[in-house]
Design brief:
Layout: H1 2-15, E1 21-25, E2 31-35, E3 40-45, E4 51-55, E5 60-65, E6 71-75, E7 80-85, E8 91-95, E9 100-105, E10 111-115, E11 120-125, E12 131-135
Antiparallel strand pairs: 1-2, 2-3, 3-4, 4-5, 5-6, 6-7, 7-8, 8-9, 9-10, 10-11, 11-12
């Protein structure tokens, strides 16, 4: 489930064309996409059971699960990282470039974010109904 949520977030946030393109399935059973911005690619499952992603802009990534149940990823640009949940139930992220972050919920029920680069804040809804990040 975590893998699906992360892939959906990554896919829509990085490429931002989820509603502006077409999707299909190739002969291998992998999902294909073609965005109005020219991005084309596939995502599916490799023989090891890991989820793979590639596009025509040179991005290739693999997502899997390690022995402790955390989602791992690596890409062709040298980034490797892990998503998981800590003992407090907060979602955590770390990568081989030194970034570590945590998403959680504060006592007011707002989603919070903090990382080791000094970013700290919470998400809220503005008067227009948009979700925005407010730094503390």
């Amino acid at each position: 489930m975590k893998k699906i949520i992360i892939l959906a977030f990554l896919f829509t946030s990085l490429f931002g064309f989820s509603q502006y393109g077409t999707y299909g399935t190739n002969l291998s059973g992998n999902t294909t996409f073609s965005g109005n911005n020219g991005t084309q690619g596939t995502y599916g499952t490799n023989l090891s059971g890991n989820t793979t992603y590639s596009d025509n802009k040179g991005t290739q990534a693999t997502y899997g699960t390690n022995l402790s149940g955390q989602t791992t990823y690596s890409d062709n640009k040298g980034t490797q990282g892990t998503y998981g949940t800590n003992l407090s139930g907060n979602r955590t992220y770390s990568d081989n470039k030194g970034t570590q972050g945590t998403y959680g919920t504060n006592l007011s029920g707002q989603t919070t974010y903090s990382d080791n680069k000094g970013v700290k804040g919470h998400y809220t809804t503005n008067l227009s109904g948009q979700t925005v990040f407010v730094q503390d």
